[in-house]
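A quick aside before the break. I want you to see a complete sequence-to-structure record at least once, exactly as it would be stored in a machine-readable document. Don't worry about memorizing anything.
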Amino acid sequence: MKILTVCGMGSGSSLIMKMNVDSILEDEGIDAEVEAIDLGSVGGNKADLIVSTQELESKLEDYDTKKIFINNIVDKEGLRTKLLEVLK
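That is the input. The structure line, written in tokens, reads:
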């Protein structure tokens, strides 16, 4: 499974989301590749799931991939809930 964490520049909030997703996956014993990327690189990457911020929802709606949008990138438990709903 491949998961993309996406933000505008690919070096700020996407890295925080990646670290949180990696931690959650490790806690749950789920094997997946997680990559932090910028919005412009999404089209060139195949993924099973995109994790991004609510602000980018309209910019990612055309991609035929499961998506999770979060409001608070440091809310690990909120992310855990949404992530496990999609993965289980």
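Two observations worth writing down. The mean pLDDT is 92. Residues 2-87 form a domain with the Rossmann fold fold (CATH 3.40.50.2300). We'll return to this after the break.
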